Amino acid sequence: MAIGLLGRKVGMTQLFDDTGTVIPVTVIEVGPCHVLQTRTAERDGYEAVQLGFVDRPRRLANRSERGHVAKLDSKRSRKRTAAGVEALPKPDCEPKKFIREIRGPAAGREIGDELRVDVFENVKAVDIVGTSKGRGTAGVMKRHNFSGQRASHG
């Protein structure tokens, strides 16, 4: 069973062990994440859980983002209801800034559940996956930490 949460890097700090060695530590803000959708093999062809992280104000979210988390009334939804097509349940929470899918079975997670760090209570080690900040096409001083010669302004 795959367990996952979304988070973002807050900053860096340092810790000291018993011998006085400095250990660099990354501080990560993790959760709370809401379960927005569950993908099933019968309906979608694969199993996954869709998580949302960081609330976005409703006034800043567009209609599709608001409709992803709450039931909106529209002509299309009324036609689908009249035709007997069952709508998927909605989590009824605020729109989310970050939405990602984590592959694997839902394992008892229901739409609208709020996941916090305590899901890792019995886990001894975790894998962190992230995207580094792009620097574009940088020069050798920034990319490889080269230093310039005297009077070369680097």
- Main beta-sheet annotation: 4 strands, antiparallel
Distance between the termini: 51 Å
Going across the biggest sheet, name each strand in turn. Answer: 5-4-3-6
Number of strands: 6
Order of helices and strands: EEEHEHHEEH
Described by the principal axes of the CA atoms, the overall outline is: elongated
Strand content: 25-35%
Number of helices: 4
Helix content: 10-25%
Q: Gyration radius, to the nearest Å?
A: 22 Å
Low-confidence segments, given as residue ranges, are none
Structural class: alpha+beta
* Overall pLDDT confidence: 86
Could you explain how this protein is built, in words?
This protein is of the alpha+beta class and 154 residues long. The chain has a domain at 7-56 and 97-141. It is 16% helix and 29% strand. The chain has helices at 41-44, 63-69, 75-82, 140-144; strands at residues 7-16, 22-30, 33-39, 48-55, 96-103, 114-115. The strands form two sheets. The protein has a four-stranded antiparallel β-sheet with strand order 5-4-3-6. The longest helix has 8 residues, at 75-82. It is elongated and about 80 Å long. The termini are far apart.
